[in-house]
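Just curious: can you write a single protein's sequence together with how it folds?
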Amino acid sequence: MIISLFYLKETRENYFFQLTRNVMTGLILLLSLVNSTSASTSPNFILVVADDFGWASMSTSMDKQKPTAKSDFYTTPNIDSLVESGLRFSNGYAAAPVCSPTRYSIQFGKTPARLKRTRGMGKNLADHNQVGIPQVLKSIDKNYRAAHIGKWHIDEDPARYGYDLHDGITKNKEGDFDNNPSQWKGYAEEDPKRVDSLTARGIAFMRESTEKQQPFFLQLSHYAVHSNIVYSESSFAEVALREKGKLHNDQGYAAMVQDMDLSIGTLLDAYKELGLADNTYIIFISDNGGMPVLPMQLNKGKPYKAGLNWPLLRGKWDLTEGGIRVPFVIAGPGIAPGGQSNTPVISYDLLPTVAELAGSLKGLPTDLDGVSLRPLLDDSQADVKRPYEGLIFHYPHFNRVGLGEPHSAIRDGKFKLIHFPVSARKLLFNLAEDVGERRDLSAEMPELVALLEEKLGSYLTQVDAERPEETDSWVRAGSEGKARTGFFERYGR
C-alpha cells in the first residue's frame, strides 16, 4: 500500500512535470513561429559611393556601344563583376561636378540648386530641413537599420537623418587630404584611404543586421580615389609590373584604384557569404567625374589634349561630360544581369528608387526632383517621367580651376545646353552623336537653344537658385568677372 501510494505520487509529479515541459516547449515554438513570421522581409541596400572616380576609369566600359571608353592601365575586376551582375546606366550622372552637392542630392532626392548647396566647400547656404534615405525607409518598415561609413560631407550630423551608426560630419581631411602640391606625389600606407577599415566596419554592420533579422541600409562612402594619392605597397608593386597606358599612366593613382576595387571585392564576398544575394540591392556611383589631368595644376581652363576622362570632355569642377557623367550601376533581385539602359539618370533619383524598392512611394517629400528608376530595372527601355523635363545642373561659382566661370546646364533627351550667365555664352551638344562635346550646335539650332534655356531658367527661378554675384567667395576669374579661360577657343569663340 505504501509502495502504491508512493508510485502514484511519483506518477503525478512526473505527469505535471511532463505537462509543464510540454507547455513551455509549445510556448517556445509558438514564440519562435511568431518571431519568424514577423521578421521583416524588406530588402537590404548597399550604396557604395566612390570619390572622384571617372566614367572611363574602370577596366570595363559603362557603355557597351563604346568598348574603348575604359582605362588602358587601371584594373577593376570586382567593380567590373558588379557592373556585369546588374544594370549599367550609360548616361548616369552625378548632380554636381564637385563632391558635397552630389552627396546632398543622394540623401534628399533633390537638385543642389533646390537645396542651396552647389559647391564643395566654403560658403554654405544649404537648407538642412530635409528628409533623408534612412528616415524614408524607417517610415516604410520601422525595423530598418541604417549606417553611413566614410566620407559624409554634409554639414549636419547623420543621426539627424536617421543613421544609427555613422562617423559624424566627415569630409576630405579624414581621408588624407592635404590640399597642397604634395597631394600628387603619392605615398604608401597600411590602410590606404581607409579602404580596408571602412569595408570591415561595413561588413560588421551587415553581419549584425543579418543576425538580428533586421533589414538594413548601408552607405559606404570611400575617400578613394580623391587626392592625396595613397596606396598599399602590394598594389603599388603589382601595378609596376603592368605596361602603362597611353591615357592612364600614373602608377600611384592606378594602385589607389586597385586598392578601392579590392575592398569592394571583400565587400561582395561578405555579401555572398552572409546569403544576402536574394534580398539585397547594391548600388555603385561616383560623387562627380574624375580628375581631368594628373598632377592637377591651375589649368586656367585651357583645352586638354587628352584628358583622363576621354572620350568625355574635361573633368571635375566643370559641367562638361567629364565632370558629371559617372559610373552608375544597380544590381539586385529581379534585375537581369548584363543589362544596359541609355536613359539619362542622376544621383537625386536614388532616394525615390530605394523607397519604391523597399515597398512604397507614399510619404515622400512632395518637392522631390528625382524619380524612381524601378521601371528601368524591370525594363531597361522603359519610359521614366520626371516632374520637370530634363536633368538640371547648377554651378554658379567663379574658381581658380576648371572653366573658372559660373555655368548651368540642362540635359533633355539627347541634347545638352550649357549656359554661362556672366558672359552670356551658350553651348549646345547632341550627346547621342557627340559624347566628347566637340561640336557646338548653338548657332545651327537657335530655337532649341531658346527652348532649353527657357526650361533651365524657369527651373532655377522656381527654386530660387543661387546666383553668381551672391556666391562669389572664390577668386574671380579675371577682370570684371569675365571667364579666365581658353575653353571657348575650341568652338571658334
